[in-house]
Amino acid sequence: MMVNTFPGINNRNQIKILLGKLENSILGKYLTQSELDILIQHSKLSEFVSGDIILKQGEETDSIYIIIEGQVSLIARTMIQGSTNIETLGPGSFLGEICFIEKVPCPFSVIAKTHVKCLVINDTYFELLSAYPEIKYKLLETLSRQVCDRLQRIHNKVTECITNSDMVSLSFLGKVVSTFNQPKQITFEGANLSKEQMMQKPIFKLFDNDELEMLFARMELLEASKNCKLIYEGEKRASCYIVLLGAVQSSIAHDNKLAKLSVIGPGTLFAGVACVDADYPYTITFTTCEQAILLKITDTLLADIQKEKPQLWYKLFTLICTSLVALEKSIDKLDIRLHIEAYNR
């Protein structure tokens, strides 16, 4: 493996060359030239020749990679099929985001298809970017859009499989129950919950006291029975939820059939893709799989925070991005399973 790394890129000629490449990538759509300059100075540069393993399936990484030049293949190895080519990515694409954000082993290997140059941002450099919250937010926004694009590609593949599958359809009664099964707004006192204790949960450590007071004053506390649909097919409103008690199932719904993804438990925020862009033509559905109590951050509140309290919005978007990456991890597993099933057929 050919790797050149620098303790933060500070060579002006090098920065100028990299700036030109990044300005023409997806990052250039969201970050200004000066912001890209700062990002480069908080990164390392690594180069790989064709065939090099950039990330290895099953191993962890403390870095996130951004492709500057070249193409890579995402390869998943399974016991049944051997190696499966999942996808090819090029300049501007992020690599290793699942491992970096979720702190889990890589779900597949990333192999250089051509000569590849990457910006590498490790944990330390990423934390240093906290001094530039708007840049960090824009980086996460760009990453979230890539994740949503990937979710859309696999969503389309899954819906096609669902259409041609012999999966059992939801019953008419189930559809009717789901339609009328709506969450109801409650109070902390009525739910016998302490607002102060809720504020101590790890998910809220990101916010200061003033931000917490503002959020808890405007978030809706909801009680939802089992099989209550919270984010449904065709939902275009940007909203997100924090599970306090109970559990929620994420799924892909199509032709009155469900392909289940993952179960989301207490202390976790989940968000629809509309939080990134309401124009996405697909939706991941979220339905309670048992009785649950949740906090809802409505589209109106999200818009107000983004407009009036940017620092709070940046923090909140970190959680939204994390939830989308967790969703990507689940849908990647489903994608690999579909490859295996196609191979077996």
Automatic annotation (TrEMBL):
<protein>
    <submittedName>
        <fullName>cNMP binding domain-containing protein</fullName>
    </submittedName>
</protein>
<feature type="domain" description="Cyclic nucleotide-binding">
    <location>
        <begin position="27"/>
        <end position="129"/>
    </location>
</feature>
<dbReference type="Pfam" id="PF00027">
    <property type="entry name" value="cNMP_binding"/>
</dbReference>
<dbReference type="InterPro" id="IPR000595">
    <property type="entry name" value="cNMP-bd_dom"/>
</dbReference>
<dbReference type="InterPro" id="IPR018490">
    <property type="entry name" value="cNMP-bd_dom_sf"/>
</dbReference>
<dbReference type="GO" id="GO:0003700">
    <property type="term" value="F:DNA-binding transcription factor activity"/>
</dbReference>
<dbReference type="InterPro" id="IPR014710">
    <property type="entry name" value="RmlC-like_jellyroll"/>
</dbReference>
<dbReference type="InterPro" id="IPR050397">
    <property type="entry name" value="Env_Response_Regulators"/>
</dbReference>
<dbReference type="GO" id="GO:0005829">
    <property type="term" value="C:cytosol"/>
</dbReference>
<feature type="domain" description="Cyclic nucleotide-binding">
    <location>
        <begin position="203"/>
        <end position="297"/>
    </location>
</feature>
